[in-house]
Specification:
127 residues; Umud Fragment, subunit A
Length: 127
C-alpha cells in the first residue's frame, strides 16, 4: 500500500514539474522573449561572438539611452547613445561609427547574456 502511494506521489510530482516547465516556456515566448546567438564583434567586450543572449520584442516607451537595442532588418545590436524621441543614435561598443534610426526601425531590447538558456527562459517565463 505504501509503495502504491509513493509511486502516485512520484508520478504527480513529475507531472507537476513538467507542467511548470511548459508553463514557464510558454510564458517566456508569449511575453516577447527570444534567445538569439550574438554574431560579430561590434559590441565587444560587452557581447562576444557566439554568445547566447535574451532579447525582448516589447520595447518600452521610456528613454532608451545606454540600453542595448536590436534594430533594422539585419538585426543589428548596438547601444543607444542618444534618444531624441523619434530619432535615436546608436554605436557599437567596439565600432567607430554612429548610426541614426527611427523608433519604427527598432526590433527588440537586449535583456542579458545567458549561460543557461533553458533555466533563464524558465525563470523569466515564471516571473
Amino acid at each position: 500500500m505504501i509503495k502504491k502511494h509513493l509511486s502516485l506521489v512520484v508520478f504527480f510530482t513529475i507531472v507537476a514539474a513538467q507542467n511548470t516547465l511548459l508553463i514557464g516556456y510558454f510564458r517566456f515566448c508569449t511575453k516577447g522573449y527570444e534567445i538569439v546567438n550574438v554574431q560579430g564583434t561590434s559590441m565587444f567586450p560587452t557581447l562576444r561572438n557566439g554568445q547566447k543572449a535574451i532579447i525582448n520584442y516589447n520595447i518600452p516607451e521610456a528613454n532608451l539611452t545606454n540600453m542595448i537595442i536590436v534594430f533594422g532588418d539585419a538585426r543589428i545590436c548596438h547601444r543607444c547613445t542618444k534618444d531624441e524621441g523619434q530619432w535615436l543614435t546608436f554605436k557599437g561598443d567596439n565600432a567607430p561609427i554612429f548610426e541614426h534610426v527611427t523608433r519604427d526601425e527598432l526590433k527588440a531590447i537586449f535583456i542579458k547574456v545567458t549561460q543557461d538558456p533553458f533555466l533563464d527562459s524558465l525563470m523569466l517565463g515564471l516571473q
